[in-house]
Amino acid sequence: MTDLSPEEAARHREKMxxxxxxxxxxxxxxxxxxxxLIIHTGAGKGKSTAAFGLALRILGHGGRVGVVQFIKGAWxxxxxxALTSFGDxxxxxxxxxxxxxxxQDKARDIAACARAWEKARELLADPSIGLxxxxxLNIALRYDYLPLEAVVAALRQRRPDLHVVVTGxxxxxxxxxxxxxxTEMTLVKHHFKTGVKAQKGIxx
Amino acid sequence: MTDLSPEEAARHREKMxxxxxxxxxxxxxxxxxxxxLIIHTGAGKGKSTAAFGLALRILGHGGRVGVVQFIKGAWxxxxxxALTSFGDxxxxxxxxxxxxxxxQDKARDIAACARAWEKARELLADPSIGLxxxxxLNIALRYDYLPLEAVVAALRQRRPDLHVVVTGxxxxxxxxxxxxxxTEMTLVKHHFKTGVKAQKGIxx
Lengths: 204, 204
Description:
Two copies of one chain form a homodimer.
Chain A: H1 6-29, E1 37-41, H2 47-60, E2 65-69, H3 78-83, E3 90-94, H4 100-103, H5 106-124, E4 131-135, H6 137-142, H7 148-156, E5 163-167, H8 173-178, E6 181-189
Parallel strand pairs in A: 1-5, 1-6, 2-3, 2-4, 4-5
Keywords (chains A, B): ATP-binding, Cobalamin biosynthesis, Cytoplasm, Nucleotide-binding, Porphyrin biosynthesis, Transferase
Domain Cob(I)alamin adenosyltransferase N-terminal (chains A, B): 5-27
Main location (chains A, B): cytoplasm
């Protein structure tokens, strides 16, 4: 594959030079700087995981990160263990009590979501924090466990340079409307279908 | 929203108890343990970011992680800075020389991919590593800069308990066929469209 004729190499060079000009022009058009409201939704894997990957990027730039988990409780902690090695640059609050089919108590689930949202508002108001991750907030909104309008309004009114990531399936259209960047994680193939169980380091 | 009648609370409890029984039965069916071949593909954001999030999970469990970047070079380093704070538990190799339209030199791109694949084979053979991230390998395969059959064969022949994540758009069907878990990141909405530029901590 490495035997390129001089003509082929020249054609490639010319094509790539044109492509670079297009890329450079596109980058130059974009001048706004702002904190982004980012949504990771869809039935696929990677919604929370990509949010924690973004946390790494902020930490790599020397920033601080706040995390509120709306559904998951203390059992889900490998990322937390890793991120808390960054000391007080990560503020992590697992405010959930597990999935709805684990608690089987709707009033308790609603109360847990209200407490989680209270903590989220604290982090959103903290000027030392550069990224707030609201993990599984979409689930709380989907079940109407939190008032959608108030949540969307608070997110829209965030500090102009604050990044926020909201994760969970079935993001509400009103939240997508307010967002800057929305990615849907789509399941193409899953090992559970072939009897493989949840793997340490991957699922938990 | 918190005023539940006793009847409503009981109906919820019963519904969730049934759902838990279904969930438990599904979990019990899955008994295989194995290292997974995971693909993050699609035009949306979060492919590499979710891979680095998985690295956190492995690190949280006390494991070691190897990373080879096939396209990106040294300029892309915030996650790297953060992950290398885990010391020798992360082995990071940025073997790329930038995008094809930056180098404008096909022979050089092919040589860089060959060196990156050599390094990947070393990491795949290292018994101390629990997760290998082959970042943007899909791009190298898409442009036929590496021999697809040999790459897929090496990934299939990995150690049974080794997890591998391959990222990049346009994953080859042969690779998807060999994979355990494939997620497509789909772009729903992007801030570049409204003139917002790449943001520190988010895009780089």
